[in-house]
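TA notes, week 10

Several of you asked for a full example with nothing omitted. So below is the full record: structure tokens for the whole chain, then the designed sequence directly under it. When grading your own attempts, check the secondary structure regions first.
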């Protein structure tokens, strides 16, 4: 049985239907209301629009709603359409040719000015329906793309779609607090890397950490590098790592950018990166029955040829 800690005080990537990238890591004693305000500040979406988007998406269960696969942001600098901040790999929007930086101005026959407009309009269409998206790209007149709407995947499945098979996002504003943390993910090319996104308050994370320490000790000489990442206070994280006798380096994601870029919404999340820097596997939560599978994956990746370029 899989166990995990939802990042309930924060939010990653998804407002149902509207995939808005956000992360606000709230300490355990921070109220939910304060966390929600912090989320709104990061996303740049007024709280009314935030809760409206949530409410509109609730009537249908995940998997029954139509999905476009766009993350959007509020952009007050320009009043035309909604800027796309990310397109999920393999999503209907990706297959239709939409890109980061495009501005969606029309969904079907409905003009849109705000992200909530896109949420509302897409929600009115069915899975399997082809929907025309009008958009602007730098220096061009309005263009159109036809997206075949898919079923709304779970947050975890979206994360896997977006990461597996792509180059792992580089670290941003990462501060080492225990052990020797490499200056960048690129510095670990030629090694197999396991990134462990965790928190001190997460029970399953405490179960996983000794297992990762054992893997590091067993396969470190063959090129395995485990690195832990937390968004909590540096002193607290360092003290906890010492208490747990962690055998791999631990870093703090000081501005939560790396956690956000990876789309983490449950803890622990393990991201396995091969010697070329490509994500090969993502494990979300903890299931003891998968311990053997993880070790087998690592052994296979360690046996792959080391890139020469």
């Amino acid at each position: 049985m899989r166990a995990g800690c939802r990042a309930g005080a924060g939010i990653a990537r998804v407002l149902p239907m509207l995939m808005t990238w956000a992360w606000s890591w709230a300490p355990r004693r921070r109220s939910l209301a304060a966390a929600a305000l912090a989320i709104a500040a990061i996303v740049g979406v007024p709280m009314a629009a935030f809760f409206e988007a949530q409410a509109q998406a609730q009537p249908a269960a995940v998997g029954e709603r139509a999905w476009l696969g766009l993350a959007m942001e509020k952009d007050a600098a320009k009043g035309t359409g909604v800027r796309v901040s990310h397109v999920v790999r393999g999503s209907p929007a990706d297959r239709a040719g939409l890109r980061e930086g495009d501005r969606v101005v029309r969904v079907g026959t409905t003009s849109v000015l705000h992200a909530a407009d896109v949420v509302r309009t897409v929600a009115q269409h069915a899975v399997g329906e082809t929907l025309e998206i009008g958009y602007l790209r730098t220096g061009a007149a309005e263009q159109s793309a036809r997206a075949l709407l898919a079923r709304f995947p779970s947050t975890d499945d979206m994360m896997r779609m977006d990461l597996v098979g792509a180059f792992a996002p580089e670290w941003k504003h990462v501060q080492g607090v225990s052990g020797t943390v490499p200056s960048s993910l690129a510095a670990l090319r030629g090694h197999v890397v396991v990134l462990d996104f965790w928190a001190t308050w997460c029970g399953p994370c405490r179960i996983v950490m000794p297992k990762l320490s054992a893997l590091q000790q067993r396969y470190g000489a063959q090129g395995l590098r485990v690195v832990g990442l937390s968004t909590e206070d540096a002193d607290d994280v360092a003290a906890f790592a010492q208490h747990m006798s962690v055998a791999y380096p631990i870093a703090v994601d000081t501005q939560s950018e790396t956690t956000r870029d990876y789309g983490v919404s449950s803890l622990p999340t393990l991201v396995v990166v091969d010697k070329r820097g490509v994500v090969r596997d993502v494990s979300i939560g903890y299931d003891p029955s998968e311990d053997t599978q993880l070790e087998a994956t690592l052994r296979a990746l360690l046996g792959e040829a080391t890139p020469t370029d």
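The two ends are 41 Å apart (CA to CA). Use that as a sanity check on your answer.
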